[in-house]
Design brief:
- By secondary structure, the protein is mostly helical.
- It starts with 12 loop residues before the first helix and ends with a helix.
Length: 83
Amino acid sequence: MLHGGSMIIRKRYSEFEDLRSKLATTFPNAGQALPPLPPKNAFHRFKPSFLEQRRVGLAYFLNCLLLNPEFAAAPILKDFIFD
């Protein structure tokens, strides 16, 4: 379990998609416990307000995973965060 302040994690959106896919495969009964990713938008992908919304959505996604004991203990998530 992680304690303390915030972390900066630099990943591509596709890496978050890959993480979510791996978690869905590893935990097939997770259902609603596995949070959705923020949506993609090809037209506004470089717009600062869109990028900030996506950053907040990805932070929410990771926080939800880390607050769930099953997901937080998964090697897949630990590898994602620390690699």
